[in-house]
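Researcher: Here's the sequence for the chain we discussed earlier.
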Amino acid sequence: MHRKAVNHLRRVDPVMADIIARVGTCRFKAVEEMTHFEAVVRSIIYQQLSGKAAATIHGRVAALFEGGKPNAQALALLADEPLRSAGVSSQKLRYLRDLTGRVVAKELPIDELHTLGDDEILRHLTSIKGVGKWTAQMFLMFRLGRPDILPDGDLGIQKAVQKAYRLRKLPPPARVLAIGAKWAPYRTIASWYLWRSIDGDAA
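Model: Thanks. This is the structure I predict for it:
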């Protein structure tokens, strides 16, 4: 499935070729079993929490909805207290309310995001309170499976680039983009390999 991308990365960058040889087969896969709205809700809940704590809170929030699947209309009608009881902080509650309000008002075309270009999706998602560039990039990569996303501000990516390219200091986003320019149009796959190269278990 990813053969073309892997062959390209090997060909254009010997450092990436070494990483690929060490990590092995690419198992990158986008998440298909949730709606776009669910994916953004999940990303908001998961922000700044450990995986286990976030999963617990996310599970409690999902249980508040029919079939365990949050949707904007139901969330708009849900009072704050059940969400607080599930462990959602006041700040994240504001973010969820902003997301829901934009979807219900049709300001955010949540169900059509996959039909838009990468930059347009980034613009739409980062207009939501609490959704920054990194979260939007994760949506592009792991929800939509967009092939050419490089999360230049991601600490894991920066650490992996520093280690692989033997840099003295952690590279700033501009340096990450410059180094990764040659990986286009498969920077998502390159990112997956970079994550795996330092922790062995990237998403």
